[in-house]
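User: Second chain of the day. Same drill as before.
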Amino acid sequence: MIPNHPIPPARQKHLSIVVPFFNEGPGVEAFDAALQPILSALPDYQVEIVCVDDGSTDDTLERLLALATTDGRYRLLELSRNFGKEAALTAGIDAARGAAVVPMDADLQDPPAVLRQLLLSWEGGADVVLARRTDRSSDGLLKRTTAEWFYRMHNLVADIAIPQNVGDFRLMDRQVVEALKRLPERQRFMKGLFSWVGFRTEYVHYARGARAVGTTKFPGWKLWNFAIEGFTSFSTAPLRIWTYVGLVGAACTALYGAAILIRTLAFGVDVPGYASLLLAILFFGSLQLISLGLLGEYIGRIYIESKQRPVYIVRRQYGGDAARDAARPSLWRRTGSHASRWSRPFVPPVQHHAGSTQ
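Assistant: Same format as last time:
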């Protein structure tokens, strides 16, 4: 059972901004430059910026460390390898301490200027404030079209609907974050998990701009796998659909067989059919392979979940209160019956490095 957290009359003005980074080195300073004037316009808020380096192979980590040394609001989680955006986002949300938590992308397609609108709706009593894209012209035609198809198909077959044209950019109240932290999935489709927890939701609208620096880290095949992840995470309808396909195929086969039998008995006409027989075999064989692949997706999810491996591993933490642990690697895992309970099963001795804070 998720405990109820009473909402105070005046919500604590503590904001956490969660930003995953993967090979975004050239855009780190641009992100900070765009964010600073927005934060300056929020003097009443205590702000922390939780940056998650998801195993970057460029100079992203070094640039983020430079920001953390000059601005105490930056907290940096360095993951031990590239776990993927969903895992990095989970790590940042788990580490966030604010009364309001805002995940956003580092490429500035989620404009920091929208933060004020999100906070106004939250101050008005909303538990979740979604940032909906009204203009996606910066995305290519193919991406816009496939995204629209995905939302429609997902909401048609899934138990939980995902708001259309809404990404990860949103504001969540602390009680929403605590509910998310209790979800035990290892394979995390965050858009679906955000919708699953519910809570009172409002919308703000914005025009999605072009990427400020660099290139997208989500090529077409990753988006395809991401879509499959969404379908299999929140619906068993594909399994039912193939059951119906099998029933319809069996019925059509029976009718066709009856027609051949009647024709042969009534007219004595043989029905030659090597080509049609081969076509039928190939057709139903393809259906079987597709259905086996679909079944394998679900079985694979069960296999991955049963191993109970951690969603992510934090190698080091920098900035804020984590500065004293900067030289102490840490392995994190989920324990207990709730996913929000954490422990450190193994902490090696402190490794002394020049310039490290103990």
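The beta strands are 14-21, 46-53, 74-79, 100-103, 128-135, 166-173, 201-207, 314-318, 333-334, 342-343.

User: Great, on to the next one.
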